[in-house]
Amino acid sequence: MGFRRKISWIAFGVVLAIGGPLTAGAQSPPGAVAEPYTPAPNAKDLKAVLFHWMWGTGMLKGHDERDMVASLEYQGKGTIQVDGQPCTLTKYRASINYQTFSQRIQYACTRPNGQTYSNIEVVSGLYAWNEDTPGAEIGPTKGKTSPMPGTEQERLIRLWASPQGAPKAAVAGTTETFWLGANPGTLFEGGVAKVRQTSVSWETGKPVVTFPIPGVPGATATATLDAKYMAERVVVTQGSTTTEFTYGDYQDWNNSLNKIGVFYAGKMVERRNGAVVRDLTTEVTETGDVYVVAPVPASVKTAIKVTGQLPRGVFAKAEPPVNKSAPTPRLAGHPDLTGNWSYTDWIGNYMTGGGRRCGPTQGADCSRQTNQTEDFELYSPSRFGNLNRPLYKPEHWDKVQQLDMWTNKYDPVMTCQPLGIPRQGPPRRIYQSDRDITFLYFGGDAGGGYGEYRVIPTDGRPHNAEAAFDITYLGNTVGRWEGDTLVLDSVAFIDTTWLGRGGFFHSDQMHVVERFTRQGDAILYDVTVEDPEVLVEPWVLPTRTIRRNTNPDAGLLRERGNCEIYEDGAAVTQIRH
Hints:
Layout (H helix, E strand, L loop, with lengths): L2 E5 L4 H6 L28 H11 L3 E2 L4 E2 L3 E12 L2 E13 L4 E9 L5 E9 L2 E5 L13 E3 L4 H9 L4 H8 L21 E2 L2 E6 L2 E7 L7 E6 L5 E8 L2 E8 L18 E6 L2 E13 L10 H6 L26 E2 L2 E2 L3 E4 L25 H12 L17 H9 L1 H4 L18 E4 L3 E7 L7 E8 L18 E7 L2 E7 L19 E9 L2 E9 L8 E2 L3 E5 L14 E5 L10
Parallel strand pairs: 1-30
Antiparallel strand pairs: 2-3, 4-5, 4-17, 5-6, 6-7, 7-8, 8-9, 10-11, 11-12, 12-13, 13-14, 14-15, 15-16, 16-17, 18-19, 20-21, 20-29, 21-22, 22-23, 24-25, 25-26, 26-27, 27-28, 27-29
């Protein structure tokens, strides 16, 4: 099981080769992967149109072709209206997280009289505010926020009428709850023009999709699609206000080292009741950033009283069934965790083997194998799923994005380091005695973690005095029982591991608490990470269920293989892993 890791300027194909059993050799022979939904030729029903819209813009990824575009970083140039006058942009950056209904727009511009103007406009759910620095008033960060009640609807319209937001909103209108990640071809039957609040008609040979804007009562959008099923015009009406967005020049605007086949408009004009308010030309996008956040400051929550809250879009699949009512064995008065255990991928994300079929915008060199490489950064474990991101201090936000952008260079697994805790995830095999517990690991985060182990006392002892001076990958750990839950407390970490893919770094002051609660044939695994050096608040991961594996060979784990580090001179790709 030896392997080599290439660092510095790594070709992504090598990353897949060492990525473990979930990725290595995942290319399927012809005919082995069932083709997903394919519209009939010339189909004009709603199901076909929504599928073509997402498929044509490259939003459906993985062999099961799900919408895996959760975020966008955008930079452009042009003009924006300020106090009724055009202001020429010197900076325009939009950071969008579709999962949390949030968008931060930072811009600076020059007025016709030569004076400069700058602002940061934020919307997150039903809250809207301006800030003088990104993340103002979050934690100890300096800066000032200005609550902007009444502007959240205008900002949500801009979000959900955007080139990627509009098809998501249209699909959401066909469901009872807001559902991100869905393939329109799997949601409802074909042959109909309307499902719930979303409908399609045809005008002058073009499909026109009508749908509600999420979070904005009374706002209805109509999107006119071009011959390639990309939105050329989206008109949103709400009361006496009409907002029109026109789009053109669709391309993959990601930087040349990270082309992932997701198309975005290169030209965007926004008009409100006929007047131009934004005229933008795209410079670069970054589709796939794992860390796009817009936490709501306490002062904004105090100033703006909202009724209800928008749903949080989810991507995760349902957990496989497990018998939690089976008898729970006990040892020395506590639940016995001994056994072989298995688990799905990281927080129920879409980790699917095999590559995606080629789409309409891809060239002759496309194959399932190249698509597997292209798609991996969007559906690799821990990237999106239901994983709530750790809330870093705002001064670290751009650092996380930079590390994420260059995971093939900076991820510690690329220098043969262990994954560390909590990235390692739950153990594959457990041995429990009346005074300690042993964990054996095999694989974690689909990218390493082979042959690691931990032997942990469970008699309730505190950390010894020397623990503070340890530098460990898996932590100096002590355990105790709280009722029927085993609680593991870990300190003394080296600061070179990550919490997960995506540049989630930590300091050497990290403190991790893991909780194992056995329920029949399942163990509920909970993790809390504290790191006041870099995090605003503790990171509480969603509960994860691991299942008893009755295969007698499931616990036969191989040792960690040889791992060598070597460099390849020229940059080949920036595609994340």
